[in-house]
Amino acid sequence: MAKDTQIPYKIPVEEALKNRGKKSVQDLIQGWIMAEWKYFKKRYRLIEVYEMCLIDGHLKSVVNNRKAKVLGEDFVLIDKNTDQQNDKNLENLFKKNWFTQFLDIALDSIFFGHSLIEITELSQKEEGRRIKQVTCVERRNVIPEDKIALPNWWDSVGICWENDLYNDYYVSAFYKDSFGLLLSASVCVLYKRFALEAWMKFAEKYGKPIPMVN
Predict the structure, then answer these.
(1) Can you tell me the distance from the alpha carbon of 138 to that of 14, in angstroms, rounded to the nearest whole number?
(2) For the chain, which ranges sit under pLDDT 50?
């Protein structure tokens, strides 16, 4: 039976307690400012707003539909020098669960602005090591502009994943807009949530829906 091993060089990223409290547009703006700050960038506040907005049913369905259309398609490998399709044996190396996980995390970069993909487990085969599992490094701890991951999100010094020790086990995926599509979508979701909250309070207080104006 093949022996599974962990990657030899792993960036020690610790996940802290996540803030699941109520979020507002002001929290979104402050998180955006913190993420853009020139001298001491932090993304944890922005990511917390993003994650809370993703529990919105409509937004989540739109995100999942977009990803499903990509993940549901078949693929081929093309040699960039000859424009010829590679052999089937090479394609079979990628038709594994880990590659689907890889694509899923990479597609999330469109919405969050970035994804740092970590190879977490290797499978020992007769012909050499093979990837078995990949995961996404906690986004609160990643500063994509500086290409570093922080052991804790409040740290001021991190580890560069392009360092020779780590670059074989970490792959970064960036979106052209470094803060992702959720920066725009979150505004609409937050205002919708406030409106729904007001409607619910009205219905609770008066026992009837808000009257429609003709």
Answers:
(1) 8
(2) 1
